[in-house]
Amino acid sequence: MKSKEFNPFEMAQAQFDKVATFLNLDDATRQLLRNPLREYQFSIPVRMDDGRVQVFRGFRVQHNDARGPSKGGIRFHPQETIDTVRALAMWMTWKCAVVNIPLGGGKGGVVCDPHNLSMREQEQICRGWVRQMAKNVGPLNDVPAPDVMTNAQHMLWMLDEYEAIHGAKYPGFITGKPVGMGGSLGRTEATGYGVIFTLREALKELGIRIEDTTASVQGFGNVAQYAIQLYTQMGGKVISVASWDQDDQTSYCFRKKEGINMSQLLAITNKFGGIDKNKAKELGYEVLKGDEWIEQDVTILIPAALENQIREDNVNKISKSVKVIVEGANGPTTPEADKVIEERGIFLIPDFLANAGGVTCSYFEQVQSNMNYYWEKDEVLGKLDVKMTSAFLSVYELAKKQKLYMRDAAYVISVSRVAQACKDRGWV
Amino acid sequence: MWLGDGSFGGKASGLGFIKKILHENEMLIKSPQVQISIPKMVVLRSSIFDNFMQRNNLYDIAFSDASDINIINSFQQAELPVEILGDLWSLISSVTIPLAVRSSSILEDALYEPFAGVYATKMVSNVQPSAEVRFQKLIEAIKFVYASLYFHESKDYFNSTKNKIEEEKMAIIIQEVVGEKYNKRFYPNISGVVKSYNYYAFGKLKPEDGIVNLALGLGKTIVDGGIVWSYSPAHPKSAMPFANPEDMLKNTQLKFWSVNMSPFINYDPTKETEFLIECDLKDADYDGTLNHIASTYDVNSGRIVIGTSTEGPRIINFAPLLTFNEYNFNELMKTVLKICEDAADCPVEIEFAINFYKDKIYFGFLQLREMSIPTEVVEIDEKELNDENVLLACDKALGNGVVDDIKDVVYVVPKNFDKSKTKQIAIEIEQINRELVREKIPYLLIGFGRWGSSDPWLGIPVQWAQISGAKVIVESTLFEMNVDLSQGSHFFHNMTSFNVKYFSVNFEGKYKIDWEWLYRQNVVQKTENVVHVRLNQSLKIKVDGRKGIGVIKKW
């Protein structure tokens, strides 16, 4: 699903440069914001279950914390690179700024494949990561969260290690914890729901009834599943989903033109979002090649898996029927593909706006943890909707007023906010 | 504004109709002295209810025999559909006046299907500085109102109608409460109901003259069947039939409901009145809200003086408005009624709230319902009333028509009747009623004092659902319970819509109840104060609605 030449950090910088020029940013601010403030690269030695010691590569990048403590996930992925982490940290900065929460951008990761690791081994990686970073993260300076192939259990191991090192309780150190252990209700749903809140607003602006739309979704992990759930509840119809097959090391697109059945698919899905293709066939799904998700004759495309999925080489495969693309994943569209999408007049809701629900709810969790006072789910999701809707409207209004592509408008808002914070602090 | 899809429910549809009427009659009602509108509101349409029930798997507990409190708790733990939460947040963030969360069910308010007072209305004070708390209170109130559809009272009610509770859905209206804040109280100067047709017309009044019921404070007083002031728009100055000023002092409104604006409230999301307080007239006097609605009893002269300019006990008789015609009040009532009647093309019933400002009156529409009028012609001659086969007769009957399928009689035992036990009697009747409703057996109910009285010393304080299976209701005075009878005013809408007949018997009057005959009938069940008998053959019951005459014959 990813080409070898693709460098997400270069892409993130290219996107930033475009906005910096538009905003006429001075050189110092430009230099400050196009690179991370701090980067940590380290080794995590782990004694494996078979007695060997394996060394894993770990990262943490704090892109910019002018607006508040850094915030960002920790990914476990075999193809993790420092450039991926840099790009994601930068996007986190813009993401926090676009939804106007008082946080900066950070990201972390470990080069590993949890599919091939026992739970004990994963625990050791988590604890090892924290041992390396304990002095440089915390509720007041950098708050990690789960990301690709990490979950609440991983966060709890990390929290436990952090608290053991610092000798006190710091539930606000990390977010994405299990509910009942300092986690926020609604966190699981937050990113996927946030994607659909912005989609709902976009459709309103475009004068399209959600009941009259169909969608094709790439990915069937946490984000995609909750996005599909809410979109369907609101009356939309998802006709295809693409998911990664661990055994075949490729992805497949599962299509049912009368609309997929979420609970049916969930029953044949593993915990990483992989759908069993044989069982899917038995249930009447067409099993297509993974990249065919982009070619479907639908109103809405929701890339909700990985970066670099809508590229120059496949952007023209997007059907003429597509009116909206909502980026559930981070960086799924390359700048080259962006140009084509803009020219074709497809309404795009950019990643760091569309999928900001996760970090917004993480922020809510952080607030709750720091207060040690926990809210009801209705309250969390209600606040999330308001934050996301208001963020979308700010971006949309600016795009309309200045005739900007939505991604550019979102960048303009975010970069200006962060640049202003840097200026106000006297950094530049 | 509305959220979701599906039905708006009866109440919200009625308000939508009023909006249209107000728009079309703008010129007629335009006046520098009067402002008429519908208080700002948001409707959660019935799809929200469906989603709430389905996504939280609430139907099992809802249809079960679980206690009301268990049902409320299950509903409170459930989550509202995520699609509306953001909108509710936005709403609560920008509004800080009290809100009424009202049911607007799809069967409620339909003609002949009155659900008035069956489902809950919950007020939230919305006074807390934190939007988080206000939001929490609002959603608790919504869940409470949803839960009220499945309370025992509601289930019993459904059993007595041809409807199935499974078919019911509920929309919800979130509406700004009309009124003003006075210290820790928020309430309107007046709540009222105006009806085109008066089923209880007596004296020189004609049914077509209509009737207006007015009360100080929130409309809960009227909905609960509390003491209100009634008058006909055709004769606004005619006082209610009180024997003397002392009688009037005692039997006019002494308490009123307001929203409790205190930040210190006993937390109880399972209680309908969590944010309400019942206040005394002296509170209203302190607030200065009696100026246009009260008179004062002058102890020295023994006279009632209109207004509140002198010291003395206040009497809520609305005399400044009705006698002095302040704000051209009666014209306002008549105009509103006429416009709505013309638009609906049938008699109507309107609920409203009024607030006075310095030189202006604000009239807020809360509900509009169409009324049904009896059409069957029944003749009863004098001989029938005095025949030996008469169980009872009266010249203050309400309703219209003939009933000949009742074999069951439930009566409060007159011997040893104890006023201090009326609450207990209500519970005993409820048990018998539930059984008869379950078996779908109609019955005749006989009791003493005012049925549905909010004051247990003046009658048996039943809610409608507790006697919902009764097809004919008799209230009688007794030597120990010689109060002015209610003549059904507490259950007015329910009775007329279900075509329930109502008899009012004075124990000193010319028509007596044949108790001895009743005592001889087969007893089905007997509780401490109530007896249920079953007759060998059906009673013959006739009511002439035009003359207000009724008779119940033993065979």
Care to describe what's here?
The complex is a heterodimer of chains A (428) and B (555). Chain A is of the alpha/beta class. Chain A is 44% helix and 18% strand. Chain A contains 14 helices and twelve strands. Chain A has helices at residues 8-23, 27-34, 82-98, 119-133, 152-166, 187-206, 222-233, 262-266, 277-282, 335-343, 351-354, 357-371, 377-402, 406-424, and strands spanning 38-47, 53-64, 70-76, 104-110, 142-146, 214-218, 237-245, 250-255, 286-289, 300-303, 324-326, 347-349. In chain A, strand 7 (237-245) and strand 8 form a beta hairpin. In chain A, helix 1 (8-23) packs parallel to helix 3, helix 6 crosses helix 12 (357-371) and helix 12 crosses helix 13 (377-402). The model of chain A has no long low-confidence stretch (mean pLDDT 94). Chain B has 555 residues and is of the alpha+beta class. Chain B is 28% helix and 27% strand. Chain B is built from 17 helices and 26 strands. In chain B, strands 19, 20, 21, 22, 23, 24, 25 and 26 form an eight-stranded mixed β-sheet that branches. The chains are: A alpha/beta (428), B alpha+beta (555).
Rg of chain A (CA only): 20 Å
What's the alpha carbon Rg of chain B, rounded to whole Å? 24 Å
Distance between the termini of chain A: 40 Å
Give helix and strand order of chain A, one letter per element, not per position. Answer: HHEEEHEHEHHEHEEHHEEEHEHHHH
What's a concise summary of this model?
The complex is a heterodimer of chains A (428) and B (555). By secondary structure, chain A is an alpha/beta fold.
Secondary structure: elements and pairs:
The complex is a heterodimer of chains A (428) and B (555).
Chain A: H1 8-23, H2 27-34, E1 38-47, E2 53-64, E3 70-76, H3 82-98, E4 104-110, H4 119-133, E5 142-146, H5 152-166, H6 187-206, E6 214-218, H7 222-233, E7 237-245, E8 250-255, H8 262-266, H9 277-282, E9 286-289, E10 300-303, E11 324-326, H10 335-343, E12 347-349, H11 351-354, H12 357-371, H13 377-402, H14 406-424
Parallel strand pairs in A: 3-4, 3-5, 6-7, 6-10, 10-11, 11-12
Antiparallel strand pairs in A: 1-2, 2-4, 7-8, 8-9
Helix pairs in contact in A: 1-3, 1-14, 3-14, 4-5, 6-7, 6-12, 6-13, 12-13, 13-14
Chain B: E1 2-3, H1 9-24, H2 26-29, E2 34-37, E3 41-44, H3 46-55, H4 59-63, H5 68-77, H6 82-94, E4 99-105, E5 121-124, H7 131-148, H8 152-159, E6 170-176, E7 180-182, E8 185-187, E9 190-195, E10 211-215, H9 220-223, E11 229-231, H10 245-251, E12 255-260, E13 276-280, H11 281-287, E14 294-298, E15 303-306, E16 314-316, H12 319-322, H13 329-344, E17 348-357, E18 360-370, H14 382-386, E19 390-394, E20 401-412, H15 422-438, E21 443-448, E22 470-476, H16 492-497, E23 501-505, H17 515-519, E24 522-526, E25 530-544, E26 549-553
Parallel strand pairs in B: 1-3, 2-18, 20-21, 21-22, 22-23
Antiparallel strand pairs in B: 3-6, 4-5, 4-6, 7-8, 8-12, 9-10, 9-17, 10-11, 12-13, 14-15, 14-16, 17-18, 19-26, 20-25, 24-25, 25-26
Helix pairs in contact in B: 5-7, 6-7
